[in-house]
Amino acid sequence: MAAVRWGTPSMEAPTRKIRLYSLSTCPACKKVRQFLDEHGMAYEHTDVDLLDGGEQWLASKEVKRYNPAGSYPTLVVEEVVVGFDEARIREALRLP
């Protein structure tokens, strides 16, 4: 099951649907979560490796739908950003 994390909403940042697929032990995944939290973004977060077998399989299939390589982190912000690419994340979130 996905966890929804709510940062302090930024008045400048427009509301966009944000979904993060990550692994609990992934350093780049932690950087993306930290980045979203620091910018007050509300997002749905799923640590795929902590899901039960069937849920994990379904989440992995969903990740591959957005990111055929199936790598983590996969951030979906009404578009797909793979890995910790700060410039692309800022662009997707419309942050300066």
Key phrases:
alpha+beta, Glutaredoxin, 5 strands, 96 residues
What do these coordinates show?
- The protein has a five-stranded mixed β-sheet with strand order 1-3-2-4-5, sandwiched between helices.
- It has helices spanning 27-38, 53-66, 86-93, and strands spanning 3-5, 18-22, 43-47, 74-77, 80-82.
- Residues 6-13 have low confidence and may be disordered.
- With 96 residues, it is an alpha+beta fold.
- It has a single domain, classed as Glutaredoxin (3-Layer(aba) Sandwich), CATH 3.40.30.
Q: How is the topology of this model organized?
A:
Elements: E1 3-5, E2 18-22, H1 27-38, E3 43-47, H2 53-66, E4 74-77, E5 80-82, H3 86-93
How is this structure best summarized?
The protein is an alpha+beta fold. It is built from three helices and five strands.
Distance between the termini: 32 Å
- Roughly what fraction of the amino acids lie in strands? 15-25%
CATH class: Alpha Beta
CATH homology-level superfamily: Glutaredoxin
What proportion of the residues is helical, as a percent range?
25-40%
Q: Find the count of extended strands (DSSP E, 2+ residues).
A: 5
Q: Name the average pLDDT.
A: 87
Question: What would you report as the Rg, rounded to the nearest angstrom?
Answer: 13 Å
